[in-house]
From TrEMBL:
<protein>
    <submittedName>
        <fullName>Glutamate dehydrogenase 2</fullName>
    </submittedName>
</protein>
Amino acid sequence: MNALTATNRNFRYAARILGLDSKLERSLLIPFREIKVECSIPKDDGSLATFVGFRIQHDNARGPMKGGIRYHPEVDPDEVNALAQLMTWKTAVAAIPYGGAKGGIGCNPRELSMSELERLTRVFTQKIHDLIGIHRDVPAPDMGTNSQTMAWILDEYSKFHGHSPAVVTGKPIDLGGSLGREAATGLGVFFATEALLAEHGKSISNMKFAIQGFGNVGSWAAKFFHEHGGKVVAVSDITGGNAMDLNDLLVHECDVLVPCALGGVLNKENAADVKAKFIIEAANHPTDPEADEILSKKGVVILPDIYANSGGVTVSYFEWVQNIQGFMWEEEKVNHELKRYMMSAFKDIKTMCQTHNCNLRMGAFTLGVNRVAQATLLRGWE
Ligand SMILES: NC(=O)C1=CN([C@@H]2O[C@H](COP(=O)(O)OP(=O)(O)OC[C@H]3O[C@@H](n4cnc5c(N)ncnc54)[C@H](OP(=O)(O)O)[C@@H]3O)[C@@H](O)[C@H]2O)C=CC1
Ligand SMILES: O=C(O)CCC(=O)C(=O)O
């Protein structure tokens, strides 16, 4: 199922549980603004290459829009739309004062040199600079982008608007980045997993973990599970897994499966074969609604993306706050606050699950959607 269809379906289900007015539902579903730009750059050999860049700004009722920028060959408007919408519910679940956005460029960063990536990032920034901003829309890294990408955006944006470190998060520390942001999504995944397992009378120690994707999120999550006595029995990146086929990892014998790469990897083709008892959605929308149904019938507990991977955007918020305060926090404080936010969101999700007698995905969706709906109603439409 297409990522947008799947995300809309989850939203509509949550809206029905909450009894939202249909006009409000429609207003929350339609993105605030969709930006599509042509990005042409000279390649290192002098030839011309043209890419398409997107920034979808989904909702700003609760604050400036926030979300990563992805460089990947499969980036398309529907996927970016879905990811932007997920950011709106995620920032609300995390109780941080932001809306949601997401961006991306359809390109293969592995096939571009550093100088080509820099030119592409600068051209994209030139095309969107007047639509992003510290109190408008604040990008961050996602798949295929990193702190260097953010440094180029910051530099290009600052040429138009003056030095503006808070316009992006996930920056290098030397440019105003936050201590702890690099590890934050993985650390948040760890805190979230710890909270879920505790609910089931279990702990990280001695549980077997299979991790798909070994980039920023997957590698940090694996490190934290390992350091706390978890057994990481399988990992994979795009080139393969440790002694197994790429897709076999998802159905590998383990207690906890942690997808940390692309969306839609758990679908009706493989869901029945999943052996894990717990799935921690560190990636965005890794589970198709059809797989959701199959897995829940099997009794698999799924911790949804809009909570499980919210550690990244939470520490992005701390970075933005530090930039605005002009004061740098110690890493201990960042991690302590991250744990506090993750625990508090878990408690709020559980309350929604009890109130509405629903699973964790709908607990998180109803929590996020309700907060955004309330903010929208309070602001009004005049
Ligand atoms: N970075 C962040 O702060 C946040 C990221 N996320 C989500 O987490 C996920 C991962 O993001 P991030 O770690 O930043 O991205 P990275 O680009 O750092 O890493 C992605 C990883 O996935 C691997 N990969 C790509 N395709 C496949 C595949 N088909 N099978 C197995 N592995 C694959 C890549 O392999 P290779 O290196 O070989 O290309 C790489 O190891 C995404 O869904 C993202 O949206 C969510 C919240 C915050
Ligand atoms: O750190 C951020 O602002 C956004 C992270 C992100 O893109 C995500 O949570 O999916």
